[in-house]
Amino acid sequence: MKMLKDPEHQVAGHMAKDGRLGPLVDGEGRFFKPFQSNGRGENEAKFYESFSSNKNVPDHIRGYFPVYHGTQVVEASNGSGKLPHIVLDDVVYGYSNPSGMDVKIGSRTWYPGVSELYFNQCLKNDRETTSVSLGFRHAGFKIFDHQESRFWIVEYKVVHGYKVDDARLVLRKFVSSNSLADSIPDCAFASEVYGGSNGILAQLLELKAWFETQTLYHFSSCSVYMFYENESILMKGGGGARAQVKLVDFTHVLDGNGVVDHNFLGGLSSFIKFIQDILES
Amino acid sequence: MKMLKDPEHQVAGHMAKDGRLGPLVDGEGRFFKPFQSNGRGENEAKFYESFSSNKNVPDHIRGYFPVYHGTQVVEASNGSGKLPHIVLDDVVYGYSNPSGMDVKIGSRTWYPGVSELYFNQCLKNDRETTSVSLGFRHAGFKIFDHQESRFWIVEYKVVHGYKVDDARLVLRKFVSSNSLADSIPDCAFASEVYGGSNGILAQLLELKAWFETQTLYHFSSCSVYMFYENESILMKGGGGARAQVKLVDFTHVLDGNGVVDHNFLGGLSSFIKFIQDILES
């Protein structure tokens, strides 16, 4: 196995920077996510095991999830020794210059049965962010600004403080060439990234159709991660933006027990409307 | 105006029985709902005023709301003197033997901006009932049992304590001829009431399609009221079950501010899945 290194294109979550514990990549298409504490790593591995072998998941839906390659004990990013990691496809492998955005779906991140401590933490975060008002909240992003030819990244604390208008604005900036400017986002790449038969909107609608009937899992605190290649936009004819949607973060997935995941479905529907509004404007 | 009297077919909410304050009917097709306290009556009248004159509401959606006839000061049901009432079409007027069910939609009945007192009350109710787990909760019903030829009514306290399995079961009993029996509900009227091009499911799906794009209102603490005529089932060829869905209770409707009502939409989608499951089984 090649030497593991910090991922270049991560946009949210626990990052392996400055000697902290975070995910690693092998540079050959695999992503190593260290087990999160308090049983969350075990939960996530359990979900991937269940999902990978679940014959009730349609093939076209499977493509919206990172491919799972089991777990592996490797040297942790923070030098604390060997730790178990979940091994996944590195979804941005092969992208040289991707813009990416992580959006946590659902107006509620707690769920029946959690401890009062966790319940109160989640409820506080849901009320302080746009989760309650919009049914989703931004968790992080990395947007390549074409005018200044560099990435625009915003601190987690700032993203956490986003209000409704900020949430709306950054979805426009995500597909604009002038994301770093104070001027109105030009949405230059909206139709290429959000639109079209293979674009983000079409993918989100396909996912939503599944969520309207699937009662296998409830995806608490799960994120939509969307990304696209800027290189092909810079060099026209470079194969397209290859815009993709993946669901990520399954540390709090529950058994659906025959009930639709109304919390995720409602939030996803709200998010979809925001993307539709951008395409229509 | 004719003498006002207690409505015969109300299934939930504040009832005008035993000298308490509740709605009245005139026996000629009008329903009089007394203004609820703490500004809720004013809010509801304001909603009806706004909705009635809102040109952005499609005609086919308007039919899912009771027709509004303004407000009127009439003698209250509890003999406390004259009080303002909201005047509506009595939706079950012309039904001689209706079964009816009131289902409060949404996993959350509180919303941003409410007092901490109201927030805590709502949150407690949402967690204690099926609102959080199912995205809806039963608020009351009145089901005509064909075997015993009488209505099955359950106390509010009991309905409030319903768990997931109870919620599922009563949706089957609603369309069964043996609802009072302990045996398995026969779902004898499922296809006639829930199914078909004019049935409950078709109406719910039409409503849902509107909720996927409408950003005019957020319907907090609002109910789906569904009802049908038993008389026509008893006397075959009597004109059909005339199953209908109406949205009721608008004391907590908010401006949508360009955002989809993800709380209502998620809950409605979950409720729809329960009806679909009954039709498929």
What is the CATH architecture assignment of the largest domain in chain A?
A: 2-Layer Sandwich
What is the helix fraction of residues of chain A, given as a range? 25-40%
The most extensive contact between chains is: A-B, 28 and 28 residues
Question: What's the total number of strands of chain A?
Answer: 11
Q: How many domains would you count in the coordinates of chain A?
A: 2
Indicate the low-confidence ranges of chain A by residue numbers: none
Q: How far apart lie the N and C ends of chain A?
A: 48 Å
**Beta-strand residue fraction of chain A:** 15-25%
Instruction: Round the mean pLDDT of chain A to the nearest integer and report it.
Output: 93
For the largest beta-sheet of chain A, the strand count, sense and barrel status come to: 5 strands, antiparallel
**So what's the overall shape of chain A?**
globular
Q: Assign the CATH superfamily of the largest domain in chain A.
A: Inositol polyphosphate kinase
| Quaternary class | homodimer
Q: Count helical runs of chain A.
A: 10
Q: What name does CATH use for the topology of the largest domain in chain A?
A: D-amino Acid Aminotransferase, Chain A, domain 1
| Main sheet strand line-up of chain A | 7-6-5-9-10
What class would the helix/strand composition of chain A place it in?
Answer: alpha+beta
CATH class of the largest domain in chain A: Alpha Beta
Rounded to an integer in angstroms, the radius of gyration calculated over CA atoms of chain A is: 18 Å
Elements of chain A, N to C (H/E): EEHHEEEHHEEHHHHEEHEEH
Family (chains A, B): Belongs to the inositol phosphokinase (IPK) family.
Enzyme class (chains A, B): transferase
GO biological process, one term (chains A, B): inositol phosphate biosynthetic process
GO molecular function (chains A, B): ATP binding; inositol-1,3,4,6-tetrakisphosphate 5-kinase activity
